[in-house]
Write a structure and sequence with these properties.
heterotetramer, A: about 325 residues, alpha/beta, 7-stranded mixed sheet, 5-stranded mixed sheet, about 35% helix, about 20% strand, B: about 400 residues, Rossmann fold, 6-stranded parallel sheet, two-stranded antiparallel ribbon, 13 helices, binds thiamine diphosphate, binds magnesium ion
Chain lengths: ~325, ~400, ~325, ~400
């Protein structure tokens, strides 16, 4: 156990699995699979496992995503790290090939593969193509791949172990803005389940549901609200597909107040699904939805920071709801 | 062979006059019917004649495979044409049998997941599947949506797969399969296995952006990948000159440094020679190969329109009066060089069987296929609720159609 | 005015616009741009306008979609017909380039382009990759392109005129299963607005919202229900982005009962957004959602037809709601 | 030039031993520092020397353009290093100035939408933008997110565009721009215009599947497309030999039948000659061209790390100790062939200006750029609510961050 950075926690999991399984491969593009952490040995997958197993080639995210799928079908566990700029380049092969492969073969295809897909949304000034945070919804609508999105270094490691060990293909969304988080993370391997939401706070006045990069702002807002006497259940989805409806419905049945918070565009943001499932199952729920407007993120920090949902927006919407 | 007629008609001032296109037209006009002969001679002289080492048993088995594919296609076409209860369909492979057979004869088709060679197929999979060794009755059942089919009735024609014999499976999309196959080859190389990954793809795949990814990464990483391009001249209604500036698509592959061959796809021995060379290279760590097999399909793109029960091939079907449609004379010219005939003649010529025995084998195969259809079409239908299974390894997803 | 098939209605619109504008281009792949209709001249765009303006090249839907975008940016109106097999091949360039281009240039990019994207979902036996009906959600989450989905030949023509004349880029989803519909369609050009839902039936007991290929089954169910004394408002979304919230909210405020019907996968189907917007705006709404389960469509007709929402499913869910 | 050092170190048994890769290594070792000289001589002898027809005014204007780019970069780098209030950033183009300048000098940079030639740019756009003729003060304002900037502060560096001068704009993605540019060329050809579409793309674009789509369709349709590949040897930290089996990427283009040239990207005259040839061909309906300009960037991939205010270039920055990082000696070797120096020497040598006048021009440009920054950084900031505009042509979208 030690304080660990996000990236170190993730690569620790990958390193462990690659040591256990000499057939496992890793394909990268921009980010060399290297991480260091105070008081810990440097992890460098490329030098430790060699360029036959750990490789970068050209800027071709579709090849990267397809190649790990092919590796899986050949019986080798495999993962790739797709940088956010290329986050939708492999969309078609995941949506239309990988996601349908087990079903179409009547269960005979094996796909022990993980696509780590970076998401951004954090850096003001990077604009439309480099500040967007929208992929959650695209990948969430796909059945047949498990789509998860960690929001803490602990979960990042535990979900990585679970994803690499899963026989289901996993889209592992990685909110790059959370890279600077650190927390206590065990050295030994452990799993966080791929289909369970986390209740981050228990309140009773309202339910706030968010995920990934939305979580820090939500937790900050919940703190503020608590100080004002408003106690919120805070749910971190973690699993987008399959979504943990039970945890949401349990909370909403109790609070009858639901606030969803997303950095993704409003229309069909994950919160839309959370709301729909809640009101399908619970009557008389009051709802509100905080999300990025249906506009690409602009470059100007003045525009961008005003549009991106922050803790104050969350707190304000919560106040209006209770 | 009425070769020129295969080139789509265009208004002179409407024609893109790229240099390569002009080259294509000229070359095609010059060589005409001799194209495949010229290629054949080339292949004979260039590629080591590995087939000389094939045992008589193996040669007979290859002949049987060609016949199995042919009679599977013909029987299924007849079903589609005559049996109103039959619901299956196919993108028929008849005419191209020597390609799948020659290639798969050079592969390891049994063994554990780290032993068996993998073959990726396309939307036209039945020939590849049979050559790779799938259970034909189960495939027949699958194609008619039966619950005991090879894939439980979930996939049917464009999605059949049988990992047990290394048949990675059909894929209804043009583009992705070769890239995915290169990933299998990458894994094989990474784990130090001598397996190879083969992908069968049509000429339509050349224009897909995936072609570049596949070739480039196979070359850069020296992958044990064998890309078998079955150039049957058309994708749906379009002649390949509309989408490719090369006469031989193999040229496009060799530029990446990929070992490339063009072979007569109607002659199983030539296909085998090229495949054996490619497999030997790949197992020895010498990297990827590309085999362009010049071939032709006897039926139309999909299903049996234009075909008559009991007859081979489909003629004169062109409901949309599409200008680019393949001419009937071209089809008839190709049928003169039928892969079944060519294989039979070789076996007789080499003294492996006599004509009578060859005919006998064909009758045996016909009976085998008839039985396969009998078994397959007698299998139980699927249970509706099973559609909710096999989304993930475990469990079922909830029904949602009821609200 | 004459009874016209779907495809004839669409190509009539395209032909008219191409005659008006000699710079306009059309890129096709499988389907030659040819249509005939009893008593009407055959339309063949390729022969009428020549292969400099009307072209097919290889099987490369990303090129097709990107090429019309480039044509638009060069000042030429342009459209392409993407067959359903390639429906997500051009996803990235639409989502990450075209949709962001006007915003990122501060309004300076002009994109008079239309991507006609075929959707299937109708043919039993075609299975996972050829019976799916899922693209509506993927394209709907994208801001910056107008995504529309006609459900009748009349709308198909009117929306095509509007799309081709719009300065906004339009994703025009085409439910291929509706190809066999015919109805009276005017010969002269006319527009159906790109952002208005259609109220197909007025009832008052409940609101049923659907779109595209879902509509025929919904209308059939509404008929059945009417015979039983249950009167439904039936809304055809037509515009997925921007969605016509007003029409939905008006109806739901009145009925307080909302049933959404989609052929798309349940999770984040368009109905999720309809439900979320409804309950954000109207209190005390009872909701139900009919959709395709979160599984790829299987080949077996027994499985597929059971899973695909049909008129009986709609009627049954409506009965349970009122 | 320490050329070998640019090739990533690898363990012998870990190296993909593709034939082309070996060829690459051998050729690079053989030619070493002489690579660009050899190419230069080749280009001089092959490409018509169109520059002989350039007027003195035009030559001086080209020199000014190079200087404008150079001083824009240096001034902005200094801002980033020294002005804590400066928020802009750049992927600096310094070192590559001759490419954008030589190409755009051969284009039509004004006129209506059916007259002006279009240039598509990349994530490294400032040089292309200036050469195409955008208003520099407005670009400076844009890069610092000002509401009166070229794009209203919506886009900033990686998204600048100015359709008025045919600058179709930057694009932060690797891959799509060349394909889109080919669509512009398609429209130009379809409407019978003699316009051309140019796309600037880095060596990183070679491996993207889009490369194939662009080349193939440009060739098949004979499009007036000019693909300018600025091969500055690296994409981020990776040498291009990791992603490309060719020494000259132009080879990859010529295979499609696209007219291809390799030129010394440091010499504006050679770039111009190749560009003029390509433009003339395109306008005459002779189809696409590919120009590979061998060049180098003086700063690191992004921003100014490793740079010192007031000094040109960035040295010795490699925080991640990346094995594939470019060696400092390589950078210094390239700086010996600086595009500004080369352009100045040519002008003096041809008697267009004397050295004193050349220096004077440089001072004028420096002053012009300084003014541009003064104006740009004094512009008003954006209004938050404006972020909801420009999603569609009309209207604003609703705010949704408030719930
Ligand atoms: C991405 C994509 N676009 C379009 C199609 C529709 N389609 C199915 S098969 C086919 C033609 C394929 O031609 P080719 O690769 O030559 O194979 P052949 O049919 O000749 O065996 C096309 C266009 C598809 N399956 N996938
Ligand atoms: C699809 C995609 N993947 C990854 C990136 C991240 N990226 C930005 S620039 C760059 C390197 C580009 O190299 P090159 O094309 O040689 O241009 P240069 O930077 O040398 O000018 C990469 C990988 C991107 N922008 N787009
Ligand atoms: Mg073909
Ligand atoms: Mg570069």
């Amino acid at each position: 156990m030690a304080m660990k950075s996000w990236m170190y926690s993730v690569l620790e999991a990958v390193q462990h699995e690659m040591r256990e399984d000499p057939a496992m491969t890793w394909i990268f593009e921009l980010t060399p699979p290297v991480a260091s952490n105070p008081g810990k040995p440097v992890i460098n997958l490329e030098t430790e496992f060699g360029r036959k197993r750990v490789v970068n080639t050209g800027i071709d995210e579709n090849w990267m995503a397809s190649a790990v799928l092919g590796a899986g079908l050949a019986g080798s566990r495999s993962a790739t790290y797709i940088p956010y700029q290329g986050s939708c380049m492999p969309f078609q092969v995941i949506q239309n090939v990988a996601a349908k492969l087990r079903h179409k073969t009547g269960g005979r295809a094996e796909m022990p593969v993980v696509w780590i897909i970076e998401m951004t949304g954090q850096t003001p000034g990077f604009a439309q193509q480099h500040s967007c945070y929208e992929e959650d919804s695209y990948y969430m609508h796909i059945p047949g791949v498990r789509t998860v999105i960690p929001s803490t270094p602990f979960d990042a490691k535990g979900l990585m172990h679970a994803a690499l060990r899963s026989r289901d293909p996993v889209v592992y969304l990685y909110p790059a803005g959370l890279r600077t988080l650190t927390e206590e993370v065990p050295d030994d391997p452990f799993e966080v389940p791929l289909d369970k939401a986390a209740v981050r706070r228990e309140g009773g006045d309202l339910t706030i549901v968010s995920s990934g990069a939305g979580m820090p702002g939500v937790l900050e807002a919940a703190e503020t609200l608590a100080a004002e006497g408003i106690a919120a259940d805070v749910i971190d989805l973690r699993a987008l597909t399959e979504m943990d409806t039970e945890t949401i419905v349990n909370s909403v049945s109790k609070t009858k107040r639901l606030l969803t918070v997303d950095q993704s565009y409003y229309t069909l943001c994950p919160g839309a699904e959370v709301i729909a499932r809640s009101v399908e199952n619970v009557e008389g729920v009051k709802v509100k939805r905080v999300a990025f407007p249906d506009a690409p993120p602009p470059a100007s920090p003045e525009m961008f920071l005003w549009m991106r949902p922050g803790p104050e927006n969350v707190a304000e919407a919560a106040r209006a709801l209770v | 062979m009425d070769y020129d007629a295969t080139i789509p008609q265009r208004e002179p001032d409407d024609v893109p006059e790229s240099r390569s296109r002009r080259g294509f037209l000229k070359l095609a006009a010059l060589t005409g019917a001799a194209v495949s002969v010229g290629r054949q001679a080339g292949a004979l002289s260039e590629v080591p004649f590995a087939a000389r080492e094939l045992s008589n048993e193996k040669l007979i088995e290859m002949y049987r495979t060609i016949l199995r594919i042919r009679w599977h296609e013909r029987t299924q076409a007849d079903q589609m044409l005559e049996n109103p209860d039959y619901r299956g369909y196919n993108h028929f492979y008849a005419g191209q049998e020597a390609v799948a057979t020659g290639v798969c004869a050079a592969l390891r088709n049994t063994g554990a997941r780290d032993q068996v060679d993998l073959a990726y197929s396309s939307h036209r999979p039945s020939g590849h599947a049979i050559a790779k060794g799938v259970d034909i009755p189960k495939m027949v059942a699958e194609m008619d949506f039966r619950s005991t089919g090879m894939n439980g009735g979930y996939g049917a024609e464009m999605h059949i797969a049988d990992p047990d014999v290394g048949f990675a499976g059909a894929d209804g999309m043009i583009g992705p399969a070769p890239v995915i196959a290169s990933g299998s080859a990458f894994a094989m190389r990474a784990r130090g296995s001598d397996q190879v990954a083969v992908v069968f793809a049509g000429d339509g795949n050349y224009a897909a952006p995936h072609f570049h990814s596949t070739m480039n990464n196979a070359a850069l990483l020296d992958l044990p990948l064998i890309y078998v391009m079955e150039n049957n001249l058309y994708h749906q209604y379009a002649h390949y000159s509309l989408s490719c500036p090369h006469v031989d698509i193999a040229e496009a592959a060799s530029v990446y440094g990929v070992h490339a061959r063009t072979v007569d796809g109607q002659d199983v021995v030539q296909v085998y020679n090229a495949a054996k060379e490619a497999v030997d290279r790949a197992r020895a760590g010498e990297g990827p190969s590309f085999i362009e097999a010049k071939t032709y399909r006897y039926y139309n793109h999909w299903g049996a329109p234009g075909a008559k029960a009991g007859e081979l091939g489909a003629f004169g079907y062109d409901p949309l009066a599409i200008t680019h449609f393949r001419p009937e004379k071209e089809l008839r010219a190709w049928m003169q060089r039928d892969p079944v005939d060519i294989a039979r003649k070789i076996l007789v010529d080499w003294g492996v069987v006599d004509t009578a025995r060859a005919r006998e084998i064909e009758e045996e195969v016909k009976a085998e296929i008839a039985e396969a259809f009998e078994w397959g079409l007698a299998q139980p239908l699927c249970t509706p609720e099973d559609g909710l299974k096999n989304v993930f390894v475990e469990g079922t997803v909830p029904p949602r159609q009821f609200g």
